[in-house]
Each structure stands twice: as structure tokens, then as C-alpha cells.
Specification:
alpha/beta; 17 helices
């Protein structure tokens, strides 16, 4: 007997987006396994502890092809169940080892600091050593409808960032590396596990910026299926930063939403500024089920002037194009900023229209001056005067009009409250 669709599956937005985000939709509704479950089925033939980093990368290239072969068969429904998990090292274990090796000469992001963050002595541009901190985690009700659904997006906010956006609306965590609580990979995995067991449709890695916590995140994902009865002390510890408290009376009442053929199944969402290295992208390829790049600035000097970030345009466009070439599920975000329509919004939208016009785009109109741009704040800097106000209705309307002229797929996400009569 065919089961009835869930409230999430029945959302009207899937009429427009089921064919745009088919993999993510399938994992969220447990019709297909999350990528990390596939990666755990692929054996690694190396001794991970003794192999050189070059050998690890060569093995990753080989195993990625094996992963893609199985992933394609799952997507095409050529196989109805996964192979058993391997007893020895797997592709997932290899990903963990690669992230650890990268940390010792940190090349997680485009800054390519090459700082050994593993020893806790020197910090990279992100101001971090090896310890990851989480400022909060909760059922996020403000993400796109495809991600927040009916029970929220399981969002985990990390501290610190590898960019310096003067207007950052998460400035409390992005500019304060000491915000939040230190988390081990096990504690982080428990956060993700709890959110999914409570009914969240995904785990949403965000910040700050998640890229600079790659080593902790990848190891946490490898541990996701290890919980059955979590340690009460560890659960009490992490809940000190769970900003929605115990969302449900008990996670057990929603546990049926978290399994694929008896295995814990949790979609992985990479919510990032996309200022990442190629190596980080290659590690994440076999793990992330859906990508949410934040495409902020045009090709001029804006990224440098208001975010102190060089190489922005070439880095972000290269990474977004790579995800598209891989055939991944993706939603692109762009925030409209005052006085930056011609220099940022239009070039960003033009690039998307030229390179991937079918990809869903959320053109966001909620900019407000924050951090160093807020005239009411003691941190305010006069140099950011041009973005020290909200956008005018004319700027927002002009941006939407241009997107429509370009034929972009933006209206279901950008207009969702008016289209679906929703309140956030």
C-alpha cells in the first residue's frame, strides 16, 4: 500500500521545484539515501594513517568515480538498495582524513593561508585554530520554503568567517571567534542528529562560515549514524546553545522521518559564501546533497571595499560553475544592497542567466544596515555610508524587473510569501 505524502511533500512549491531539486527532495523525504550513506559503502584501499596526502588525493579521485557510478544508479532507480557498509576504511573515512591533513597546512578557503591550525598555536585568516565553536542551532523558520518546509531547516551556526563583510547580519558570530561553545565532532553530530530526529528536513551548515570548520563537519557527518541512545550529559551540554529549546516534547515522536531502509538519513545542505578552495569542494562533493551559495558581489571592487575580500568574483563564480557542471542540486542567493544595483546585482544576475538560467535563485530584499554599517551602532564606520540604509522600493523593483527580463527562475522563492500566502 502506497504511503500518503507528508505535509512537506505536499507543499505547493514542489510543483515548481521538484524537478529542480530532485535529489534533495528525495533525501528529505527518505526516498533515496543521503550521499554520506553512499560514501560509506565505497571501500578505500589505503592505510589512511600512513598514506601520503598525494596518495590520499589520488585515491579520492578514483573513489569519487566509484561514488558517482552508484549515485547515478540510485538516481535512475537502477538499484533499490545500497550495498552494505564496508568493514574497513570507506570513502567517507578518506574524506575525514583529507580534511585533517588539509588543516595542518590550511587550504580550506581561497586565502590558502597554509597555517598549521592543528597545533592550536597559529591562526589563519579566519582567526581559528583547530577547535570549532557553535553559536546556536535550531529549527530555522526563515530559510527558503524548500528548506524550511513545515518543520524547519536544522540550522547550525558556526563562529568566525573568512570574509569581512561590513554589513554582516550575523556579525555577532562572524566577527567573534569566541562566541558559542566548543564542539567536538561527536557533539556536532549529536546536534545534527537531534535536529533531524525532531523532524527538520535537512541539516544546514552555516555561520559565520562553515568552510573554515570543514574538518569538524566532515568528521561529524561520518558519526551521524552512531547514535541510538545519546549520552545525556552531552545532550545537556549542546542544548545550552539550542535557541528553540526542546522543539518537540520528544525527538522520538518524529523519528520515523529520519531513516532510509533502517539507516539514519539526513540531507546535508552547504550554506556558504562559496569562498572555498578547489580541494574543499572536492571533499564536499561526495557528502553534500544540496548547495546554497551566497553570491554577493559583482566583478568590480565592491568585495574588496566592503568585505575586504580579494579574488572574490573569480573564486565564487568558479565554484558555483563547478557545482553546476557536477549536476548538483543548488539554489543561489543574492542580497540586494542599496547603491549596488548596477555594480553588483545586475552583473550577478547576468552571469547566472548566461551560465545556468535554470538554477533557482532567491533575490533577497531584506537588507538592513548592520555591523559596521549601522549608524546607530558604536561600531559604525563613515566609509560605509553608501550602504547605511535599507533598499528603496525602486531599487528592489528594478532588481526584480531585471531578473524577469533575463528569464531567471527567481519568482517562486523571492515572492513566496505573496504567491503562497505564507507568513515567516
Amino acid at each position: 500500500m502506497k504511503s500518503q505524502p507528508s505535509q512537506f511533500e505536499s507543499l505547493k512549491i514542489w510543483e515548481s521545484f521538484k524537478d529542480r531539486l530532485p535529489w534533495y527532495f528525495g533525501v528529505s523525504t527518505n526516498h533515496v539515501p543521503a550521499k554520506y550513506l553512499i560514501a560509506k559503502c565505497i571501500p578505500c584501499n589505503l592505510d589512511l594513517s600512513s598514506a601520503s596526502e598525494e596518495e590520499l588525493w589520488n585515491e579520492n579521485t578514483l573513489l569519487t568515480q566509484a561514488f558517482l557510478d552508484i549515485w547515478e544508479k540510485v538516481r535512475m532507480t537502477e538499484i533499490s538498495s545500497l550495498p552494505p557498509k564496508v568493514e574497513r576504511a570507506s570513502l567517507m573515512d578518506l574524506s575525514v582524513e583529507l580534511a585533517k591533513r588539509m588543516l595542518a597546512h590550511c587550504n580550506f578557503c581561497r586565502w590558502n593561508c597554509k597555517v598549521d591550525r592543528s597545533k592550536g598555536i597559529r591562526h589563519g585568516t579566519c582567526q581559528l585554530e583547530s577547535t570549532s565553536k557553535v553559536g546556536s542551532y535550531f529549527h530555522h523558520r526563515g530559510e527558503e520554503l524548500t528548506f524550511r518546509g513545515t518543520s524547519g531547516s536544522g540550522t547550525i551556526f558556526f563562529t568566525s568567517c573568512n570574509m569581512r563583510c561590513s554589513f554582516c547580519q550575523n556579525g555577532d558570530i562572524s566577527t567573534d571567534k569566541d562566541n558559542g561553545i566548543p564542539v567536538t565532532p561527536s557533539a556536532l553530530a549529536l546536534m545534527a542528529w537531534q535536529l533531524r530526529m525532531e523532524g527538520c528536513h535537512n541539516v544546514n551548515w552555516v555561520g559565520g562560515e562553515p568552510t573554515i570548520h570543514l574538518h569538524t563537519i566532515v568528521e561529524a557527518i561520518n558519526l551521524l549514524d552512531s547514535f541510538s541512545n545519546p549520552d545525556p550529559r552531552q545532550l545537556e551540554y549542546i542544548q545550552s546553545v539550542k535557541s528553540d529549546g526542546s522543539y518537540f516534547d520528544s525527538w522520538r515522536i518524529n523519528s520515523e522521518h529520519a531513516f532510509y531502509q533502517g539507516q539514519f538519513n539526513c540531507p546535508q545542505l552547504w550554506n556558504s559564501n562559496f569562498f572555498m578552495s578547489q580541494e574543499a569542494m572536492n571533499v564536499l562533493r561526495n557528502i553534500m546533497d544540496v548547495w546554497l551559495p551566497d553570491f554577493k558581489f559583482g566583478p568590480g571592487k565592491c568585495a574588496l571595499d566592503i568585505s575586504r575580500t580579494p579574488w572574490y568574483w573569480e573564486t565564487v563564480t568558479s565554484n558555483i560553475k563547478l557545482v553546476h557542471e557536477w549536476g548538483e542540486n543548488m539554489v543561489i542567493r543574492h542580497l540586494i544592497m542599496p547603491n549596488h544595483i548596477e555594480c553588483c546585482t545586475k552583473p550577478v544576475l547576468e552571469w547566472i542567466a548566461k551560465n545556468m538560467p535554470e538554477v533557482p535563485v532567491n533575490i533577497m530584499d531584506q537588507y538592513h544596515p548592520d555591523n559596521l554599517c549601522n549608524p546607530e551602532s558604536s561600531k559604525y564606520r563613515e566609509r560605509y555610508n553608501d550602504i547605511s540604509r535599507t533598499c528603496t522600493l525602486e531599487e528592489i523593483a528594478r532588481s526584480y524587473k531585471y531578473a524577469k527580463e533575463l528569464g531567471l527562475n527567481f519568482e517562486p522563492l523571492s515572492y513566496e510569501k505573496s504567491i503562497y500566502g505564507l507568513k515567516v
